[in-house]
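Allow me, if you will, to draw on your knowledge of protein folds for a short while. I have a record of one protein: its chain in single-letter code and its fold written as discrete structure tokens. Could you please explain, in whatever detail you think fit, how the structure tokens follow from the sequence? The record follows directly beneath this note:
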Amino acid sequence: MTATELSTAREEALDSAQGWLIVGLGICILTTIWGAVFTFTVYADRLAATFGLSALQASSIFSITTAFFLMVGGLFGVFAARFPLRPVLATAGVGLAVATALLQIVNSYVGVIVAFALLGTAGGTAFTIVISLVPQWFDAYQGLATSLTMTGIGFGPLVLPFAWLWLLDRTGLRTAFAVVIGVAAVLVFVSSIVYHRPSGGSQNATTVDTAWLHARIGDARFLCTAIGFALAFGWYYVLSSHLTGILTANGIDVEIAAAGLSIIGGISVFTRVGGGVIGDRVGQRKTFVASGVLASVCAFVFPFAHSNLFIYIVLFGFGIALGPLASLWSPIVLTRFGSENATATVGLINIATAGSAFLVPLTASALHRVVGGSVFPFITLGVLTVLGAALFRWGTAPQSGDSEQTLGSLTSGTAK
């Protein structure tokens, strides 16, 4: 095809029905995969009982899973930029199916690690592809499409805790895992049939090679952006792994405690879309930073919340903060650093986030054991969150001649 034909094909693909189909499947994939991984706190005790794991071993399973989800999945995302997306996504579906099968037959701690590491790798690859592909299919409705897709990250913690509890009340962990991850694998296989980059979308893209990686990693602004996002999101990984245990230790019933993640996820469904609209009005970076500050405040006050009402208010605040933090970072990053090779760029951000996902929950657990309470760990978490928001803001500052309105243009569709 000639350059003119490629340009015409791309214009016809943007904001098309194909794009909205990709959004719909993306919502379903993120709901099941993100929900399965980041509602670990709901089934952690059953996992420990089923395989005879200590509390520390169970906690390490979550840390390892999230590290593979973000780091290895991110690496796969970088390499996926060099290949058609369909076979990469189909391979991720195979990985999910194999992880499900492994958990049915293993009986040791090492075996569980292998199964969950594979879950993290396959799930992280699918996650990276989804959040990097959707913006490429839209122009006028890019922000709306991105925000809607990211609601899957909210629907996961909203729906999956109740699904886990329902399944675990009626069957064992292995069967429950097979059902949830099996559904995710089917969705990924179906998506592999229709997921591909829009025609002509990469005609001007730079090849993802060592030179590209060196230039990206050598950019101080990009490094601050990646580290800042990782720190600003650390609180979420702590709550994903420890929230139910923290609340039940304070005398909250397990089912009510499990609903804590649902509250955060449910509220964030609305604030993801609302955050895009507000970002168009006042600036995406300002909205992101404000959400980071709110999450930091919630982390500061959480250990002092002893009544059900106070706890729900704090969880409500976490949910408000989660929406813009989860939905705005991708368009901000791709606008500041370019949408060419978007899958690789998002993959690098996820690799950086893996460090936070792995270390922050373990550090919080270690601090809790050393000081004998939750106050100091959560105060530290609050400081890291606001520091991360500040680093992200500095890293994504517009280049000379750009403006906040340029950054806001990615979500202009939500305001139309």
